[in-house]
Amino acid sequence: LYTYFQGNPKWPTSIQELKYALIATSASTIDVATLRDVFARAFSRWAAVIPMNFTETTSTVDADITIGFYNGSHGDGEPFDGPLGTLAHAFSPTDGRFHLDASETWIASGDVTKSSSNVAVDLESVAVHEIGHLLGLGHSTVEDAIMYPTLTVRTRKVDLAQDDVSGVQNLY
Length: 172
Ligand code: TQI
Ligand code: CA
Ligand code: ZN
Ligand code: ZN
Prior knowledge:
Elements: E1 17-24, H1 32-47, E2 53-56, E3 65-70, E4 88-90, E5 97-101, E6 105-107, E7 120-122, H2 123-135, H3 162-169
Parallel strand pairs: 1-2, 1-3, 3-5, 6-7
Antiparallel strand pairs: 4-5
Helix pairs in contact: 1-2
Residues 80-87, 101, 103-104 line the site of calcium ion.
């Protein structure tokens, strides 16, 4: 079963559009056009099931959600830890910060299961999970769910399970 953060924080339902911005991409090994593509796909999976749209903005001041790649300590008291361990983190509504560990071997195109690296992590899989947190979902006990708190390396898991859909639909 799905969970929410304590106090069930969520984005106001008066907002039908959340804007996101890629604010720190220089530490990423993936080009910005590919990143745009992956994040747009990840957001669209959630937008398909709730009355909320996600659009990219290049203006940091307009952005509700900010996405960045960082190494080690990056100013929020939750330092990244090098390859594997913590891959990314996102804050609960309505903070909007979504940070990714730049030291991961991120795979953004092609098939992560065919990667020659045994530490490769599928970017879209992690993005779909973190967007769940950005929307207010905690972890799920359902193994197939995107919000289940374990992702095996070299695995692609991007389709919302019924549990994820119920969780987000009961919030929005
Ligand atoms: N990052 C943790 C996560 O996103 C950070 C975290 C722990 C967290 N507890 C939280 C974030 C509670 C919000 C609320 O779960 S992670 C997975 C998964 C991570 C883990 O790097 O460990 C994914 C990132 F679920 F597979 F384990 C992405 Cl998909
Ligand atoms: Ca890490
Ligand atoms: Zn951070
Ligand atoms: Zn999580």
